[in-house]
Amino acid sequence: MEFENLLILIKTVSDSELTDFAYEENGTSIHLKKKKETVVVAGNQPDVPIAGLAAASPATVNAETVQAASSEPEGMIVKSPLVGTFYAAPSEDADPFVSVGDQVKKGQTLAIVEAMKLMNEIESDFDGKVAEIYVQNGQAVEYGQPLFRIV
Fold it and tell me: Where is the Lipoyl-binding domain (predicted)?
């Protein structure tokens, strides 16, 4: 399997709701497994073979890593932990939990996601300032969908 195809496969599995995936081709097997949260680690060892496959040249990987890092927005992203309906306020006539520009503390409620008639409070994992709110009140959200950017 080509290195580019391997990266596409990893991204596809990561973006899906699969938690376990196995693939075998020409005596090489790949087993991908993910937990609730996916952690991506970028290191300085791009020439280390992955599961016996030849990796791309260090210059190619470093250029791709730098390009991807520069296109990502600054700050930390709070993502939806479940599929449901996003609510910015505790009730229809109440003020939103937070607005762009508000200072927030770790553990502070940012919003609610309703799933199966249960109201799930979405708390900040970070201290900082709300730089961006990606969803509208009443909008349906997917698992892992970005909700807020905190800087």
Answer: 75-151
